[in-house]
Amino acid sequence: MASTVVTGTLVRMQVTLVQLAADLDPAANRELVVDSLRTVDGQDLVVLPEAMMHDFGPPEHDLAAAAEPLDGPFVNLLSQQARRLGSTIVAGMFERTDDLPYNTLVVLGPDGELVTTYRKIHLYDSFGYRESERLRAADIAPVVIPVGDLSLGLMTCYDLRFPELSRALVDAGAEAFVVPAAWVAGEHKVEHWRTLLRARAIENTVWVAAAGQGGSRYSGHSLVADPWGTIVVEAAGGNEQVTAQMTVDAVRRSREVNPSLANRRMQTP
Questions:
Q1: Could you read off the pLDDT of 169-192 as tens digits, one per residue?
Q2: What class, spelled out in words, does domain 8-257 have in CATH?
Q3: pLDDT of the residue at 21
Q4: Residue 128 has what pLDDT?
């Protein structure tokens, strides 16, 4: 069972990012998740990519038909795995509605209970892609949750390009951002991914833990960046896992030395 490590005043959260490439078969994706989590042990937080329940597929693929409810097979599987590991698990799915589905992150606690959801605010209508034709954008409702001694703000993929969301998360108390993604591969994309993740860490003095899909369609490069923007661990492009420790003291120290949040003069309404 996972437990946050305390040494004096130093609180360390163990996090594992599980980089996988999902496909269009939900049952196969569930098996892939189970197989990948067999080697995970003693982690406070496990982060899986966006759309891990079912990949986006080609532009004409009907995501409404593939979407599941929050008590469906995918969330039930994550509940079992969270309880088995004693870890908090964050993963992406398509959530069924009576119309277009939501692109949703689910958070399962160590007891297997559904702690919260985050429905993606910014849909990926960019680089020639139209996510809004198959999914619905959520209402603007930033989500911050406590896990151990850290408060985690949730973002999904394209949200990363909107710094106003990260500011809203920090204003709500976030000390780390968790960013599941399916960051489409292409020219400039890996550099955009790294740069934006580091920028969100630096400007908000927070940890950033980002788990992306790998494989040929997506950029991979899941990573953890510290509140100074230093990448402490990074994956390559395939199916793999990376593990890091995130500390509360690193957030506190960076905010003492670099009090940019306290020095703001332009506040978000």
A1: 999 999 999 999 999 999 999 999
A2: alpha beta
A3: 97
A4: 87
pLDDT bucket at 7, cuts 50 / 70 / 90: very low
Q: DSSP labels for 195-253?
A: HHHHHHHHHHT-EEEEEE--SSSB----EEE-TTS-EEEE--SSSEEEEEEEEHHHHHH
Residue whose tokens read 């995970």? 40
Answer for the pair 47, 18: CB distance below 8 angstroms, yes or no.
Answer: yes
**How many angstroms separate the CA atoms of 6 and 4, rounded?**
6
Q: 139 is written with which tokens? A: 């209402």
Question: Mean pLDDT, to the nearest integer, of 216-236?
Answer: 97
* Distance spanning both ends of the chain, measured CA to CA: 41
Which residue in the block uniquely carries the two structure tokens 């693929």? Answer: 61
CA dist 9 to 39, 150, 210, 250, Å?
30, 13, 26, 11
Strands 223-225 and 231-234: antiparallel
Catalytic residues: 50, 120, 157
What residue ranges do the domains of the chain occupy?
A: 8-257
Do the Cβ atoms of 91 and 105 come closer than 8 Å?
A: yes
**pTM of the entire predicted model:** 0.94
Residue 118 pLDDT: 98
Angstrom distance (rounded) from CA 73 to CA 27:
9
User: What digits encode the pLDDT tens for the residues 131-155?
Assistant: 999 999 999 999 999 998 899 999 9
Calpha distance 152→209 (Å, rounded): 10
Amino acid at 195: T
